[in-house]
Design brief:
Layout: H1 7-21, H2 32-39, H3 43-59, H4 61-71, H5 74-98, H6 107-117, H7 123-132, H8 140-151, H9 153-169, H10 171-192, H11 197-203, H12 208-217, H13 228-237, H14 239-269, H15 274-290, H16 292-302, H17 304-324, H18 328-356, H19 361-373, H20 375-390, H21 394-397, H22 400-429
Family: Belongs to the major facilitator superfamily. Nitrate/nitrite porter (TC 2.A.1.8) family.
Subcellular location: Membrane
Keywords: Membrane, Nitrate assimilation, Transmembrane, Transmembrane helix
Length: 430
């Protein structure tokens, strides 16, 4: 019985697929003004158009993440990539045949294609589960940090490359190029990705127990329990799943929110030119993603809870500085500190998933990745409301939202450590 792949190949496939998955949503924000002009969109309609890919990209993480526990990650991951190809391909075709004067009346269809495009970033929770089953617990932090860190580099890289491409080749050409890029990535993922040994043995017809035994002989440590519904229900019953959701809401949801917010902050509050504002935003995005990789290794050595606590302290301090400071130099230092805290905390959170929810990793990854990423939608309106209340200075005061969230999360981490200490004490007494 031939079994394919190894942990290195498994990690390479998911990381590459997640990176390519961002291609389908990279264009919506920077090119939104083109849709507004062509279809005479209201601010609300334009906001919905920009947000719709991220909506599917967050909420679909929940069911697709749970699906990993029944079939392995390759099938749900590939389906999400194909849906993303359909979405971006549909928008590209509409632009090629109807832009600029023929788009009126096509807004609902564009929203549908936008929703499908977001499926590419919903692959995150699938990749988390798929990667987790490949690695032993003592290497989870580094493996998941590498997967998420490299994959999350895409928004920052695209924010630098896209303006240059648009200036040379134009609006519609960019959509064709990004569509081909996504299609290539989907094909490469289909060829390279492979599920962990247990799922391969199950597809060969082995019983669950026999498949576990054979996979364990090859080094696999983690195994699922139940189906999609079971995975979601089992993980939802564990209260620590919701503690991790709260942490990830602040760190990854905050990462998404600030990637969208910083161009406004640098442009309006610090009065930067658009290109400079985009560059400074890219620095935040790339740094937060890149530091996630060593963050996973640090979490392996020091423990996810302790690393998350230190990260939250960094987020609280950086947000406080940004809330009340105006100096560009100090603000930039605070942004790098904020990026460090968010990136390292993101790695630490998913280091804790297999620790607290070992029998429903996919389901937990779905809840955490999906509801956590929803922070990318919830936080910008809160910061916008603060701007409305305070005026120009509100662009700085809006960071108070992260001060509050960091303080709440420090208390949550304290409770996690306290409960863990109690559990360890009980085990020792037994």
């Amino acid at each position: 019985m031939k079994i394919k792949g190894n942990s290195k190949r498994g990690l390479t496939g998911t990381t590459m697929g997640f990176f390519f998955g961002f291609a389908a949503v990279a264009l919506y924000g920077p090119t939104a003004i083109k849709f507004k002009e062509a279809m005479d969109l209201t601010p609300l309609m334009l906001g919905l158009l920009i947000a719709i890919p991220a909506l599917s990209g967050s909420l679909l993480r929940i069911p697709f993440g749970a699906w990993v526990d029944t079939t392995g990650g390759k099938k749900p991951f590939f389906i999400l990539m194909l849906l993303s190809v359909i979405g971006l391909g549909g928008v590209t075709l509409l632009l090629a045949t109807n832009y600029p004067h023929g788009l009126e009346g096509l807004y609902p269809l564009i929203l549908v294609f936008g929703f499908l495009s977001g499926c590419g970033i919903a692959t995150f929770s699938v990749g988390i589960g798929q990667t987790s089953y490949w690695f032993p617990r003592n290497k989870q932090g580094l493996a998941l940090g590498t997967f998420a860190g490299i994959g999350n580099l895409a928004p920052g890289i695209f924010s630098v490359v896209l303006p240059i491409y648009l200036s040379y080749y134009g609006f519609i050409s960019a959509y064709f190029a990004w569509f081909l890029f996504l299609l290539l990535g989907t094909l490469l993922y289909g060829l390279l990705a492979v599920d962990a040994y247990y799922f391969q043995y199950r597809r060969k017809g082995m019983s669950g127990e026999h498949a576990k035994e054979k996979a364990a002989q090859k080094g696999q440590e983690m195994f699922p329990l139940g189906g999609v519904k079971d995975s979601l229900i089992n993980s939802a019953k564990i209260k620590n799943t919701w503690a991790l959701v709260a942490l990830y809401f602040t760190t990854f949801g905050g990462f998404l929110a600030l990637t969208a917010w910083f161009p406004t902050y640098w442009g309006i509050y610090q009065e930067f030119e658009p290109i400079k504002a985009g560059l400074f935003t890219a620095i935040f995005s790339i740094f937060a993603s890149a530091i996630r990789i060593p963050g996973g290794s640090i979490a392996d050595k020091l423990g996810g809870e302790k690393v998350a606590m230190l990260s939250m302290v960094a987020i609280l301090l950086a947000s406080s500085i940004l809330s009340f400071g105006h100096s560009i130099t100090i603000s930039m230092i605070a942004v790098l500190l904020l990026a460090s805290g968010m990136g390292i905390a993101n790695a630490a959170v998913f280091k804790l998933v297999p620790v607290y929810v070992p029998k429903a990793v996919g389901g937990a990854a779905g809840w955490i990745g999906g509801l956590g990423a929803f922070g990318g939608f919830a936080l910008p309106p809160i910061m916008g409301a603060i701007v409305e209340g305070y005026g120009h200075i509100g662009y700085a005061r809006g960071f108070v939202a992260f001060v509050v969230l960091a303080a709440i999360n420090l208390f949550i981490i304290y409770l996690l450590l306290k409960n863990k200490a109690k559990a360890d004490s009980v085990l020792k007494m037994a």
